[in-house]
């Protein structure tokens, strides 16, 4: 006679509380606390509120310069990146020369040189007056030419991360090298490039503050003009910091969400 002994059910151990605490995004909580404190100051303090409304006038210019510059820098960077991995010795060396030149000169110096030397020179070459191109347009041109070089390296790394077998497979199907690059290589490389492109977008947003030296009325320039008359240095630059911190945080979280979606689809 056999007796069946019931095995006690093994309850899953509750997850260690410390593991939950380790995974909790404390950095986000700290940043949101700082932003929340500044928002309260803006609501309750009329001085903070007036300065906030003043700086807010330059936000549209900051976002406009960022968006237009990034779109054209992507296009320019794509062509430079393709030249960088080209089989043509001339294209490859021209691309490398341009990229290394841009990366070897400080960004502020390049902004001055492109805006006050290169653009006026091109304007005279085409018979245009020196004031035909606005300072905002010069700032955008400068950022496109600068960030195009950095984005080109992102495209190069993304393309080279795809195995050579993909190019050979495309060529075996009768595609040309450029057709294979466009329809086979780049779609796969884009997912790998998303984090780096996102970082460049955030860096570009922050570097739009540099075009304030040209007099472009983005939020940094508006803040400088405001503080020159109000002498409220602490309030003005705290609020300016709040603007950049909020924008970069939103962009960072949005890009992380996009990257997770891309991994799921993959």
TrEMBL record:
Cell compartments where the protein resides: Cell membrane
- The chain's coiled-coil residues are none
Domain ABC transmembrane type-1: start-end pairs: 59-255
Task: Give the record's membrane topology.
Answer: Multi-pass membrane protein
Entry annotated with the keyword Secreted: no
Q: Does the keyword DNA damage apply?
A: no
Q: Which UniProt keywords apply?
A: Amino-acid transport, Cell membrane, Membrane, Transmembrane, Transmembrane helix, Transport
Q: Which SUPFAM superfamilies match?
A: MetI-like
* Family (UniProt): Belongs to the binding-protein-dependent transport system permease family. HisMQ subfamily.
Q: What is this protein called?
A: Amino acid ABC transporter permease
State the species of origin. Answer: Candidatus Chloroploca mongolica
């Amino acid at each position: 006679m056999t007796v069946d002994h019931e095995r006690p059910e093994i309850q899953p151990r509750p997850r260690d509380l410390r593991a939950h605490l380790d995974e909790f995004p404390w950095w986000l909580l700290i940043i949101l606390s700082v932003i929340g404190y500044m928002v309260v100051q803006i609501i309750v303090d009329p001085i903070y509120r007036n300065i906030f409304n003043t700086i807010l006038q330059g936000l549209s210019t900051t976002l406009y310069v960022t968006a237009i510059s990034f779109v054209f820098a992507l296009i320019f960077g794509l062509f430079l990146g393709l030249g960088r991995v080209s089989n043509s010795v001339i294209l490859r060396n021209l691309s490398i020369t341009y990229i290394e030149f841009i990366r070897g000169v400080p960004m502020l110096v390049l902004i001055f040189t492109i805006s006050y030397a290169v653009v006026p020179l091109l304007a005279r070459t085409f018979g245009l007056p020196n004031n035909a191109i606005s300072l905002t347009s010069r700032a955008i041109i400068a950022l496109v030419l600068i960030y195009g070089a950095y984005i080109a390296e992102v495209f190069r790394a993304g393309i080279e991360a795809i195995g050579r077998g993909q190019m050979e497979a495309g060529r075996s199907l009768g595609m040309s090298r450029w057709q294979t690059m466009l329809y086979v290589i780049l779609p796969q490389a884009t997912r790998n490039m998303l984090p780096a492109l996102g970082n460049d977008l955030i860096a570009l947003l922050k570097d739009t503050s540099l075009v304030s030296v040209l007099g472009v009325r983005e939020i940094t320039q508006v803040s400088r003009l405001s503080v020159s008359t109000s002498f409220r240095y602490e309030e003005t630059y705290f609020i300016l910091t709040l603007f950049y911190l909020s924008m970069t945080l939103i962009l960072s979280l949005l890009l992380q969400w996009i990257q997770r979606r891309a991994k799921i689809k993959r």
